[in-house]
Amino acid sequence: YTLPAEVEFVFVLEGELEVTVAGEGTVLGPGDAFTFSPGTEHGFRSLRTDGTTRVLWVFAPALSEGRAALP
């Protein structure tokens, strides 16, 4: 999916997260951060099988009501 924002940022608080941007996967662990263009097709998934993955996810500018993910 893509989003109508200028910058997207994820910071992993706990667990393991795989972020895929433009078909290229990056694995992040606690304390890792990743910034990318939300207009590029991307996705994510938790790699943790025995607990929770917690992240801080930021979009800038913030997505207002009515601004949704684009197919």
Description:
The chain is mainly beta. Helices cover 0% and strands 48% of the residues. The chain contains no helices and 6 strands. The protein has strands at residues 7-14, 17-21, 24-28, 33-36, 42-46, 54-60. The strands form 2 sheets. The chain has a 3-stranded antiparallel sheet, with no helix packed on it. A 3-stranded antiparallel sheet has the order 3-2-5, with no helix packed on it. A hairpin with a 2-residue loop joins strand 2 (17-21) and strand 3 (24-28). The termini are close together. The model has no long low-confidence stretch (mean pLDDT 87).
Essential attributes:
71 residues; mainly beta; three-stranded antiparallel β-sheet; 6 strands; globular
SSE layout and pairing:
Layout: E1 7-14, E2 17-21, E3 24-28, E4 33-36, E5 42-46, E6 54-60
Antiparallel strand pairs: 1-4, 1-6, 2-3, 2-5
The SS-based structural class is mainly beta
Please summarize the sheet with the most strands. Answer: 3 strands, antiparallel
The parts where pLDDT drops under 50 for at least 5 residues are: none
General shape: globular
Spatial gap, N to C terminus: 5 Å
Strand content: over 45%
SSE pattern: EEEEEE
**Number of E-state strands:** 6
Question: Count of helical segments?
Answer: 0
Mean pLDDT: 87
Q: Major sheet: order of its strands?
A: 4-1-6
Radius of gyration: 12 Å
